[in-house]
Design goal:
The chain is α/β, with parallel strands linked by helices. The two termini are about 25 Å apart. The strands form four sheets. A seven-stranded mixed β-sheet has the order 8-7-13-14-15-12-16. It is about 35% helix and about 20% strand. It contains 13 helices and 17 strands.
């Protein structure tokens, strides 16, 4: 098991300061090869790969727990995803082999539902969706319906999210299943959002409710927290440490820093704040064994204040107290300093601002900016892990 320190901040700073200010031999003896800021998947993947090849790593995190946003806790015998649902999926065999070193995975397949004012539709958009909406029974009928609505719209080249969505699925699906959900999620009209946001929207002309196309899917059998704990086994981890507040101390204990926090915060917002969307979670324990019959239900109308309800027991078949269930409602919110930044708003203004920060980061040769916040990119878990491994391999000058 990793070394998890829960010292109070004053004691931690004093002990670290004494290490730094000790004799030269003591300083060399206590020196780390890498300081990794952030105990989420990005930092843990880098630390594990580097440590496997003899590098001494120190991982710190301002939170009181490891795992970043995939952190989970057990409630009523049910693994509860504390920062929104995380379904592991990948087509990268290297990543799949890596994570299976630390845990087995169940065979969970995500097949969420959409609720539009009491009408239920399958997600992702597929033949079950098209049949419920239009009565289509063949892929040809569904394609003809969508093509007819696309032509009727008169859109030639999509300029925003609304137009891009209509060009993918037609006006009916856009109005019922995309518009309200997306505007709640991003806090803006779809006409004011870039088309790129919706280009990853899965559309299938098969009766297949599997949300992801990847061959490897599932939930860690022992939970996400155990996965990260095992990744960090034997590596020193200190929690409750604010790196930016103690930068002058911590930057001296390793020649290289892997920083997975927000890049604009690192530079004290000198060019202004990058924009994010945040989320608030309201979790309840209910006196029933089954609240909604599926792990995720998206509420796609504009009136319901939350975007979805997650019922955690459905991630693990047969898990937990048989008379209880745990649900979480997810409320999108405007991000402000102090909130957790979840989704970067990759519009022209923010992309331009990020480029200024990226240029500034080149003046810091001993700091590598990594992870979703360090690179201002939304990433799936497998992408984060792959990049963490690749980054370590680049640092080690080898391919593992």
């Amino acid at each position: 098991m990793g070394v998890f320190s829960f010292l109070n901040r004053e004691t931690k700073v004093r002990s670290t300061f004494l290490q730094i200010m000790g004799t030269e031999s003591e300083r060399k003896k206590s020196m780390y090869d890498y300081l990794i800021v952030g105990a989420g998947l990005s930092g843990a993947s880098f630390a594990r790969t580097a440590a496997d090849h003899g590098k001494r790593c120190l991982v710190i995190d301002r939170r009181s727990h490891i795992g970043g946003n995939i952190y989970s806790e057990v409630l009523e015998g049910i693994e509860v995803h504390q920062y929104g649902p995380h379904i592991f999926h990948t087509d990268k065999e290297k990543v799949w082999n890596f994570v299976n070193r630390f845990t087995s995975f169940n065979h969970f397949i995500y097949n969420p539902m959409a609720n539009y004012r009491g009408e239920l539709y399958n997600l992702p958009f597929n033949m079950n969706t098209f049949h419920a909406l239009w009565g289509c029974v063949t892929p040809e009928e569904a394609r003809e319906k969508i093509e007819f609505q696309k032509k009727l719209s008169g859109i030639q080249k999509p300029e925003n999210l609304e137009e891009q969505a209509i060009m993918l699925v037609g006006t009916d699906i856009y109005e019922k299943l995309v518009k309200g959900y997306t505007e709640k999620q991003w806090g803006r009209a779809c006409k004011d959002l870039p088309a790129d946001i919706i280009r990853r929207l899965p559309v299938r002309f098969t009766f297949d409710n599997n949300y992801f196309n990847h061959p490897y899917q599932g939930i860690p059998s022992d939970g996400y927290t155990k996965l990260v704990e095992r990744m960090l086994e034997g590596i020193e981890v200190r929690l409750g440490v604010d790196y930016l507040g103690q930068r002058t101390i911590y930057e001296k204990i390793a020649p290289k820093v892997i920083y997975t926090g927000a890049i604009d915060e690192y530079f004290e917002y000198c060019f202004g704040e990058l924009e994010y969307r945040s989320l608030k979670f309201v979790t309840e324990v209910l006196n029933t064994d089954n609240y909604q019959g599926v792990a995720g239900v998206n509420y796609t109308d504009g009136e319901t204040p939350y975007t979805r309800i997650i019922e955690h027991r459905h991630f693990h078949f047969g898990q937990g107290n048989p008379g209880k269930t745990v649900i979480t409602r997810e409320y999108p919110s405007l991000w402000k300093r102090g909130d957790e930044p979840y989704y970067p708003v990759n519009d022209k203004r923010n992309e331009s601002l990020y480029e200024r920060y990226r240029e500034e980061s080149r003046k810091c040769p001993n700091v590598v900016f990594a992870g979703r916040m360090g690179t201002y990119r939304y990433c799936d878990m497998d992408q984060v892990i792959a990049r963490g491994i690749d980054l370590a391999e680049e640092e080690l000058g080898r391919k593992v």
